[in-house]
Every structure is written in C-alpha cells, then in structure tokens.
Design goal:
Number of strands: 5
Largest sheet: 5 strands, mixed
Number of helices: 4
Distance between the termini: 39 Å
CATH architecture: 3-Layer(aba) Sandwich
Order of helices and strands: HEEHEHEEH
CATH class: Alpha Beta
Strand order of the largest sheet: 2-1-3-4-5
Helix content: 25-40%
Structural class: alpha+beta
Number of domains: 1
Shape: globular
C-alpha cells in the first residue's frame, strides 16, 4: 500500500470525527512528516465561526506537538461529492512547514480526485525564508 493510500484511510477514519453542526461540511486530513509519521486532524466548528479549526490546522498542530516540523505529503478529503481543497489560511499554514514541491492530494470520502504541489496551490507565496 502506498503512503497516499494509507493516508487516505487514516483521513477517512478521522473524517468521521469531524464536528461541523453549522456547515455540515466534514473534513479529514492526514499529514506525513519527513520521518514518515502520520498526523491526522478533522475540522472542529464553533458557533463563533472565527474560532473554527480546519482539519489541516488540527493535523499541523498535532505534528508540531509531537516534535516534528516538516510536512512531506498531505491528504485532504471531505464528506462531499467534490474534491476538498485547502482554504487560503490553511495554504499559508501548510507553507510554513512544507516545501513548495510538497504534494497535496485532494478528494472526497470515496477517492482522491487530484494532486497538486503547494506552489501550484499558493503561487508566489510568502514563507519563512523571507524573514
């Protein structure tokens, strides 16, 4: 089984734990770090929308809390008919911990539809190297 397939299965399991009573848009994410460890996250909504936590953010926080700092690959899925893509804020969060050629696999609860690198999702981005 490839890393992406294994990550997809982990994201599916995490998707079931999403808390989205307002949008009804469940999202699951799995990150593979440089040491090939997996970190998962799901979206957790809040009545005050600005306090909502995206699945990618949850997975990144878990990765950082475990002592890792580098994303190698991401799978992002939603309980939807369409592919789930990272929001703008999450693209920037991913940029903080990933190389521009990091693959991001996007799909729904049944399959991955497509893969793009971070530089395709966030062209001409601002990163840590600018500081």
């Amino acid at each position: 089984m490839s890393h992406a397939q294994e990550m997809f299965k982990l994201a599916q399991k995490t998707l079931a734990n999403a808390y989205s009573p307002y949008s009804k848009y469940n999202v699951g994410c799995c990150i593979r770090s440089h040491s090939n460890q997996y970190y998962v996250g799901c979206n957790v909504e809040n009545a005050s929308y600005s306090l909502t936590c995206c699945a990618e953010t949850a997975a990144i926080v878990q990765m950082i809390a475990s002592g890792e700092k580098q994303i190698k690959e991401i799978v992002l899925i939603a309980q939807s008919d369409k592919a789930c893509v990272p929001c703008g804020a999450c693209r920037q969060r991913i940029r903080e911990f990933a190389e521009l050629d990091t693959p991001i696999h996007m799909g729904n609860h049944e399959k991955i539809f497509f893969t793009k690198t971070l530089d395709k999702l966030l062209p001409d981005s601002f990163g840590p190297e600018f500081l």
